[in-house]
Write a structure and sequence with these properties.
Blueprint: H1 3-34, E1 38-43, E2 47-49, E3 55-62, E4 68-71, E5 85-89, E6 92-93, E7 111-114, E8 119-125, E9 136-142, E10 145-146, E11 149-150, E12 166-167, E13 173-178
């Protein structure tokens, strides 16, 4: 066998090996990306009256086998302190009329502990943050972001430049707003 053929075989073998390694690494990244760590759900009544409370129950579930520490900022777990929901009325965006909070670094009390497979819930009045003055069919979904989460309680609190955020997934809910 000539030296040129051996060099070609070695070169093709190396390319095949590199391709195999890259494919395996990408598969692992995709698997980790698809793993659900936290999941949210929303619960509402079927009907509410204009001018009255519109309560939305938000539940955050730990889908892992580890205890998680989750920053409550910009989630219903701390109330409505920013435009945390996407609210539409018959396809049109409802105006956010609530507070906008500017923040310094969090303290440990800004985090909640959620045990493995456990969940935590909070109920907020949507009318405190959004213009719900018109009757119609409304659709609500959480904007779906956790700004910091860890499994290491000893690392808390963390400065904002150390936060490890993540997007959440969950389903939207609908309700009718009717005249009293």
């Amino acid at each position: 066998m000539s030296g040129t053929i051996i060099k070609k075989i070695i070169f093709l073998g190396t390319l095949l090996f590199i391709s195999f390694i890259s494919t395996g690494e990408q598969h692992m990244k995709n698997k980790q990306h698809r793993e659900v760590i936290l999941e949210y759900s929303l619960k509402v009544e079927e009907r509410y009256h204009v001018g009255r409370e519109v309560n939305v129950e938000f539940t955050l579930k730990n889908m892992t086998g580890q205890t998680l520490w989750v920053l409550t900022w910009y989630t219903p777990l701390e109330g409505i302190k920013g435009n945390i929901f996407r609210v539409t009325r018959e396809g049109e965006e409802a105006l956010y009329i609530g507070r906008m909070v500017k923040r310094a670094n969090p303290s440990k009390k800004d985090y909640v502990c959620i045990g493995p497979g456990k969940s935590i819930s909070a109920t907020v009045d949507l009318s405190h943050g959004y213009d719900l003055s018109k009757p119609g069919e409304y659709r609500v979904e959480f904007n779906g972001r956790i700004h910091d989460m860890t499994v290491e309680e000893a690392s808390l609190p963390r400065k904002m430049d150390m936060h490890k955020g993540m997007n959440l997934h969950g389903d939207a809910v609908t309700f009718k707003l009717i005249e009293p």
